[in-house]
Amino acid sequence: MKYRRFGRTELQIPVFTCGGMRYQYKWQDVSYQEVPADNQKNLEATIHRSLEVGINHIETARDYGTSELQLGKVLPKLPREKLIVQTKVGPMADAKAFLKTFEQSLRLLNLEYVDLLSIHGINLDSHLDECLRSGGCLEVMQKLQAQGKVRSIGFSTHGPTDVIVKTIATNQFDYVNLHWYYINQVNWPAIEAANQLDMGVFIISPSNKGGLLYQPSPRLVDLCAPLSPIVFNNLFCLSHPQVHTLSVGAARPEDFDEHLKTLDWLDRADEILPPILKRLEDAAIERLGADWVNTWRTGLPSVDETPGRLNIPIILWLRNLAIAYDMVDYAKMRYNLLGQASHWFPGARADAIDPKSLQKCLVNSPHADKIPGILQEAHELLSDAIVKRMGSS
């Protein structure tokens, strides 16, 4: 395993993290007696395999259903000083409720402290305000830190880049969990901002949200050769020293195996990545055209600036991936989540478009005349059964 300094936390963190949202029994809290023995056995085997390969960073959240409860049966049996344990609690207007929720997490984990505590999902300006206000969540986290129940504090986010950068700029957090990978690099300014303040940088879900890379299209497999899409994406991320760790959402012990192949290539990234990156870029231009590939994002409105809260940048991005790389399954999964995931994945699908209503908000786009038709085409290509966010009922 390779390790990197996790910013000002001063932790030596493995370049892969054992994420805790796929091996748990349920997304809802249940008593331990309801957890099937085979499920618990698998979770414990996954944790032991993680430690065997040098991944000692275990990351979970209060919103991950039975994850904390089940981890609480195995973590206390392991050498505490060798573990880096992270949990996350959502932002709350009621700081007392935030504290109570964290105390529940600590009790379920059966630990005296966590190394890393995150605000789970600073996705909106209002979330940041709730954290920063006098007597808010941040003050609670700082008191927990002073009491020794939390070593370092950070935040996770699925929000827009400007909200992430604004949160980083407060200089109140030691690290950030955010999305950034080959197919979605818009948060690079946030990573740069975090590095300037010596914050740790944790990449969320690079193999799932990064493209369902464990079930890639044949075209993507060919374009990434001789690496698998998972290894290519891992190497792309880790070739940037500003990135410290990538989440592996392991559901079973063998899920680490493909990711571990990345380690053999880390010292040769400058050699192996350029031809793959060139093939991917050429493949996108071949199917979408150079002008579109280079300028499609220019002048697009945000969700809040668009009639019906249509998420134009996301819809066009998903349509691009489906066409350029045959990533139809991934694009459908994300597209049909629109309208169902609140601030976690905001905006609406392009079910019914009135081209005239979009004229004003597209005035700064060089493709204003084409985009309404492209949006309709994207809906026809990607529309499928409505998808709900994991953990929602």
Give the end-to-end Cα distance, rounded to a whole number of Å: 38 Å
Rg over CA atoms, rounded to whole Å, is 21 Å
Class by alpha and beta content: alpha/beta
Low-confidence stretches: none
Strand order of the largest sheet: 3-4-5-6-7-8-9-10
The beta-strand count equals 10
Helix percent band: 25-40%
Structure description:
The protein is of the alpha/beta class and 393 residues long. It folds into two domains: 3-266, NADP-dependent oxidoreductase domain (TIM Barrel); 289-382, no CATH class. Helices cover 40% and strands 11% of the residues. The chain has 16 helices and ten strands. It has an eight-stranded parallel barrel, surrounded by four helices. A two-stranded antiparallel ribbon has the order 1-2. Helix 2 links the parallel strand 4 (57-59) and strand 5. The protein starts with a strand and ends in an 11-residue tail after the last helix. The model has no long low-confidence stretch (mean pLDDT 95).
